[in-house]
Amino acid sequence: MKKLFTQLIRFGIVGAIAFLIDYAIMIALTELAGINYLVSSGISFTISVIVNYILSITIVFKPKKDANKTKEFIIFVFLSVIGLGLNQLLMYIQVDILAIFYMLAKIVATAVVMIYNFITRKLFIEDHTKG
Predict the structure, then answer these.
(1) What is the pLDDT of residue 66?
(2) Taking a C-beta distance cutoff of 8 angstroms, is the pair 7, 60 a contact?
(3) What is the 3-state secondary structure (H, E, C) of 8-33?
(4) Which of 20, 24, 62, 118 has CA 20 to 30 A from 107's CA?
């Protein structure tokens, strides 16, 4: 249980770093470059996924020793693309349907996607063998 708690803390720290990168880029692209929030959110999310992958496999999850790193990255990206779809759907619903300010909507969407990310990465990336 202590291992899981430590892993959750590390995941939270990595997630916070990725979120700050995601959030800052999204705001810069939207506010400074005048790019639509859905486009800027997609770009910022993609950049943060790359940072998140590197930090996740070095700090949070113990990847499978014999795993093909290319295949592992493809799985990570595939899971992240699903997370991006979830992020975009939540952003659209909150901003365009519920009229929530996009900066606040991003925080809510990120929280939901973070839960999805932890569960799927724990299931598909982490080594579950004993020893």
Answers:
(1) 79
(2) yes
(3) HHHHHHHHHHHHHHHHHHHHHHHHHC
(4) 62
The separation between the first and the last C-alpha atoms of the chain, rounded to the nearest angstrom, is: 17
In the predicted model, what is the mean pLDDT of residues 86-98? 95
Joined together, the tokens standing for residue 42 give: 């997609």
Rounded to an integer, the average pLDDT of 33-55 is: 91
Dihedral angle sign, alpha carbons of residues 47, 22, 75, 14: positive
Ordered DSSP codes for 56-121: IIIII--B-TT--HHHHHHHHHHHHHHHHHHHHHHHHIIIIIS---HHHHHHHHHHHHHHHHHHHH
The residues spanned by each domain of the chain are: 2-124
| DSSP bridge partners of 63 | 126
